[in-house]
């Protein structure tokens, strides 16, 4: 059963076709990868504003994906891409190079981004609008 407003408009998942939804979710995963990689570089370079910028970009992507698709998978898809990018950039290389220093900013970025992804995925999306003459 899908939710409709008073005029008969469907407020289900967007887009309605399965192939379209898969394409949107794949694009959100790629955006999550890019946001995670960019945030990894920015958070350590411009402390503390870089950290705030990186977390704001991640939260905006997660919540924007949920609102765009009107599903929880819309927030989980970029969250999965973000986590994958961050976890691939976490280990240090054999030469001694690293992207995450052992400081509070790195841990705030790692745990703050994961917490934001989980929060945006589990928060209930707002109900569709109800026409004025209709009661719930």
Number of helices: 4
Q: What is the CA-CA span between the terminal residues?
A: 16 Å
Helix residue percentage: 55-70%
Residue windows where pLDDT falls under 50 for at least 5 positions: none
Radius of gyration: 18 Å
Order of helices and strands: HHHH
Which percent band covers the strand fraction?
under 5%
What form results from the Cα inertia axes? elongated
Classify the secondary structure makeup into a structural class.
mainly alpha
Number-wise, the strands total 0
Mean pLDDT score: 83
Largest sheet: none
Task: List its traits.
136 residues; mainly alpha
What does this structure look like?
The chain has 136 residues and is mainly α. It is built from 4 helices and no strands. The protein has helices spanning 18-45, 49-69, 73-89, 104-122. Helix 1 runs antiparallel to helix 2 (49-69) and helix 1 (18-45) packs across helix 3. The mean pLDDT is 83.
In short:
The chain has four helices and no strands.
Write the layout of secondary structure elements.
Elements: H1 18-45, H2 49-69, H3 73-89, H4 104-122
């Amino acid at each position: 059963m899908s939710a409709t407003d008073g005029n008969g408009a469907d407020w289900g998942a967007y887009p309605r076709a399965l192939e379209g939804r898969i394409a949107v979710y794949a694009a959100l995963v790629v955006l999550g990868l890019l946001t995670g990689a960019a945030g990894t570089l920015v958070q350590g370079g411009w402390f503390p504003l870089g950290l705030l910028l990186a977390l704001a970009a991640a939260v905006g992507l997660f919540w924007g994906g949920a609102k765009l698709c009107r599903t929880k998978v819309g927030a989980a898809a970029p969250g999965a891409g973000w986590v994958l990018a961050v976890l691939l950039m976490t280990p240090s290389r054999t030469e001694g190079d690293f992207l995450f220093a052992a400081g509070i900013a790195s841990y705030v970025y790692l745990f703050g981004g994961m917490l934001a992804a989980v929060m945006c995925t589990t928060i209930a999306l707002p109900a569709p609008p109800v026409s004025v003459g209709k009661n719930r």
